[in-house]
Amino acid sequence: MKTTLNRxxxxxxxxxxxxxxxxxxxxxTTTARAxxxxxxxxxxxxxxxxxxxxxxxxxxxxxxxxxxxxFDFVDYCADQNIAGAELTSYYFPDPVDDAFLLQxxxxxxxRGMPISGSAVGNNFVLPKGPQRDAQIAMxxxxxxxxxxxxxxxxxxFAGPIHKELSxxxxxxxxxxxxxxCGQYAGAKGIFLGLENHGGIVAEPAxxxxxxxxxxxRWVGINLDTGNFHTEDPYxxxxxxxxxxxxxxxxxxxxxRGQTQNQLADPSRVVKILRDANYQGYVALExxxxxxxxxxxxxxxxxLRAALxx
Length: 309
Description:
By secondary structure, this protein is α/β, with parallel strands linked by helices. It contains ten helices and ten strands.
């Protein structure tokens, strides 16, 4: 009798829709727990992907006889025999409609190429008002697009240092936006990865402070291996790796005090990920000055070797 009464009370409180979402683990409520290290059973599994941002100049070229499109990028990833393609939002047509997303989804499936995720260029460190609302709305719009496209993860930014906001206020605004977007993303089955991208998350302690405070099971870290310009970037990557829901591998690093970039050690980075029992995509994000058409294939092979050794 007690069990029946409790069940009736629960149904009255949540309704059938709430029960369905709760059963699926998608319902974000006030009892949602703050972000913790991702708990993964089994052994580390690292899947090689490639970020479309690697070919940013090719995408932007206006004098090309034939424009380079996301369809071409998917073909390139398939030809490289990698496990995923990260489709950066910057290179979608404007406006984007469902017909295009479905066409691209079909093309990727036919080529046997999983879409590992996407990335947006948002700013959550804005005072409350129309501009901030527009940034949140843009991220939600891309959550909808990625849900249709079948991209399970979106890289998001925190934002730059804002001269009119104290560090505490900037962090609070970012946390509030991440929680709102995380709740929306969770209902669509999409992960949001907050990137260590300078600004208010330039240091690992700042990034972890924000991530710890966000109450959503669908928020983690998009760990960019080249973005910590600290005394020991490798040690700082290790601090954040347990929270990673996606990894972007940069070819270079620049520790604090160095005037020039240094080549990253793929074996050392991979060991950090394995020690954290990371299981997911590692997307090469080529940002060096060299021509990506000449250097990306070689770096994919180096990274593939490190991931499989």
